[in-house]
């Protein structure tokens, strides 16, 4: 297991916001993540963890600086872990577009050159990172997962592919059907190759349709109705329909006037944290 190097440490709402760098055996690069530890984590008690996956162009910092999640996390006694959205570095493959390469890992394990040597984000966020966090911080093994846009896709597929690993999942403005929309098709063609059957393993509509009746993770999805990416990239109704057809416990909430930005996330993050607290605390 890799050693953690502390990058920064800030007091927030009686707890601590900390950033760490480590060498990841999964991505073969240095990775940075942030953790918010609520005040409850300073005693002998261990606290549960919400993993947050960010969207295209983000690092570990966007959510921690813009969502305003720390106040409610402190009140509820929930730690939050926010990883980066891809491996990074001069030796890491990249693309000129904002929607492929560094900052756009799509939370899949790449099988294609030149991406596969470092772009193993699915294993990083579902395996290596939780093991590292649970070994080094005062947290227990109660986990939930949430995210935004590309990160909403990451959160939903991580929960659907690992029944029982996450006690709940939620997403803001997620890319629910990446095999059928331009962002997902571009990234999956690059990272996973031409076999579209292989793409389905990372598509939440496909996964929710195939989910076993005994494998259910409570899910909340929030979508702004003035989101500039709603019709072309996000298509939440497809997930709602697939969930309904398979009797899956998914709640889709739609909010008039809200767009794709962190203003939307900041407006409803308290609701999402309280949703997760029902299962974590
Ligand atoms: N053209 C934009 C696209 C980038 C963008 O909107 N990124 C979103 C996530 S989109 C889906 O994954 C985001 O969270 N941005 C960071 C932020 O802090 O708002 C662009 O490159 O500007």
From TrEMBL:
GO BP field: formaldehyde catabolic process
Enzyme class name: hydrolase
Active-site residues, Swiss-Prot/TrEMBL: 149 (charge relay system), 227 (charge relay system), 260 (charge relay system)
Reaction catalysis annotation: S-formylglutathione + H2O = formate + glutathione + H(+)
An example Gene Ontology molecular-function term: S-formylglutathione hydrolase activity
Xref: Gene3D superfamilies: alpha/beta hydrolase
Keyword Signal on entry: no
GO cellular component, one term: cytosol
Transmembrane segments: none
EC number: 3.1.2.12
Protein name in the entry: S-formylglutathione hydrolase
Organism the protein comes from: Ferrimonas aestuarii
């Amino acid at each position: 297991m890799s050693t953690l190097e502390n990058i920064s440490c800030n007091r927030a709402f009686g707890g601590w916001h900390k950033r760490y760098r480590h060498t990841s055996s999964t991505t073969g690069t240095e990775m940075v993540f942030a953790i918010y530890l609520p005040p409850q984590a300073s005693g002998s008690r261990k606290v549960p963890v919400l993993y947050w996956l960010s969207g295209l162009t983000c690092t570990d910092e966007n959510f921690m600086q813009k969502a305003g999640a720390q106040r409610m996390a402190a009140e509820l006694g929930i730690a939050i872990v926010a990883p980066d959205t891809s491996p990074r570095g001069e030796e890491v493959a990249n693309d000129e577009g904002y929607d492929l390469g560094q900052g756009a890992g799509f939370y899949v394990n790449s099988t294609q050159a030149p991406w596969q040597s470092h772009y193993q984000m699915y294993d990083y966020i579902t395996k290596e990172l939780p093991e590292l966090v649970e070994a080094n911080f005062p947290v227990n093994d109660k986990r939930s997962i949430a995210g935004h846009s590309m990160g909403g896709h990451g959160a939903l597929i991580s929960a659907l592919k690992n029944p029982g690993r996450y006690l709940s999942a939620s997403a803001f403005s997620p890319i629910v059907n990446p095999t059928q929309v331009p962002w997902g098709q571009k990234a999956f063609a690059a990272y996973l190759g031409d076999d579209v059957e292989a793409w389905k393993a990372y598509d939440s509509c496909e996964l929710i349709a195939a989910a076993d009746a005994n494998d259910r993770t409570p899910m909340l999805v929030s979508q702004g109705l003035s989101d500039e990416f709603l019709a072309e990239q996000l298509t939440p109704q497809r997930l709602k329909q697939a969930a309904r057809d398979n009797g899956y416990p998914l709640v889709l909430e739609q909010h008039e006037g809200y767009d794709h930005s962190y203003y939307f996330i900041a407006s409803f993050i308290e609701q999402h944290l309280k949703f997760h607290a029902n299962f974590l605390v």
